[in-house]
Amino acid sequence: MLTSITGYWLRVIAPSAIESQELTLGPFPPGTNVYANISLNELNTYFELDSSNTKYSATGYIPYWTHYKDDGTESNQMQSMGFNQNAVAVDNCARIWLVLEGFRVVASALVNVITY
């Protein structure tokens, strides 16, 4: 049964170096199932790019999460698929970490969290 839907915004302003914003969700009460995703919403290259360096990037991903073990303790961090993991469903979820990174951009991302 659906118990909540929550949204969060992350934003990075990264004119010349990699910048990141991290969001840690939890700890959730034991027995909570969680679906979370992160989606890029904005990507702007306001910064001057010279002919020797025209590269820029932004990515939103979930690096890891934890769940509650049978004895009630929190598990070790479960590794994701790295930059390719932008959504996850975790039964008996303890925590989920989400990251937005940018390089030479202004970027924002929307995080959706559904508990059930």
UniProtKB/TrEMBL annotation:
Protein name: Uncharacterized protein
Source organism per UniProt: Tunturiibacter gelidiferens
